[in-house]
Amino acid sequence: MAPADPTEQGGGTSTLDRELEELLSREQVDDGDHDRFAHYVRKEKIVESAVTGKPVIALCGKVWVPGRDPSKFPVCPTCKEIYESLAD
Ligand SMILES: [Zn+2]
Question: From ligand 1's centre to the CA of 84, what distance in Å?
Fold first, then answer.
């Protein structure tokens, strides 16, 4: 079975680790308390978001506008699992 591949827009999995950056979810929504994790997002999307202000999509499907705070949150277990499966 083939897992969803967020890299299919360009580049290969071999460069995945350099294209991902751990970010802190700072989403301020009513139901956000359960989601205080650092998610993995493609670095190019983070750069784009910084310019456009548009939200990014993490490996786990989480969508939010990334902030600049240092990450003091645990890595999202879903992102970590997907990331490791892709890097393998
Ligand atoms: Zn995540």
Answer: 13
